[in-house]
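To the wet lab folks,

You asked to see what we're planning to order before we commit. Fair enough. Below is the target structure as tokens, and below that is the sequence we designed to fit it. If anything looks off to you, flag it before the synthesis order goes out.
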């Protein structure tokens, strides 16, 4: 009986792995796919940490962070500096970042008068497709 349940679990896991990257990300393509899947899951669950998919999102984020730590060099920078860089790269103005606050709030963050909070970090990471760690 246990053997049958285990065999079923293996089949279910393999089927899940065809949809969701579970395990070590080895290539840029794996990384991009994982970020896309994580974004889709986060769009679905929002900020509901009790959602059935929340643990899956956590697991995928661990694989993404591991890949980025090994393959993506991020120079040490203050969160405001990272945000300025990303804004330049994406040709954005302060008024384009409405998901983190008003233009005044964005301005205060960029000049160092205000720190990013967890909600803002999550939204910026999602918008730019980067690990939240770059803003901490």
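Sequence we intend to order:
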């Amino acid at each position: 009986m246990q053997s049958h349940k285990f065999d079923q679990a293996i089949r279910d896991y393999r089927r899940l792995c065809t949809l969701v990257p579970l395990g070590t990300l080895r290539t840029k393509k794996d990384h991009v796919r994982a970020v896309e899947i994580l974004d889709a899951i986060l769009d679905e669950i929002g900020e509901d940490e009790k959602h059935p998919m929340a643990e899956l999102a956590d697991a995928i984020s661990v694989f993404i962070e591991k890949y980025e730590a090994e393959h993506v060099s991020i120079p040490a920078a203050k969160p405001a500096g990272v945000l300025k860089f990303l804004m330049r790269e994406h040709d954005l103005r302060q008024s384009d970042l409405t998901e983190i606050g008003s233009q005044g709030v964005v301005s205060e963050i960029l000049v160092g008068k205000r720190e990013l909070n967890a909600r803002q970090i999550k939204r910026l990471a999602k918008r730019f497709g980067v690990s939240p760690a770059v803003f901490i």
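Structural context that might help your review: Residues 2-71 form one domain. The CA atoms of residues 81 and 110 lie 7 Å apart.

Thanks,
Computational group
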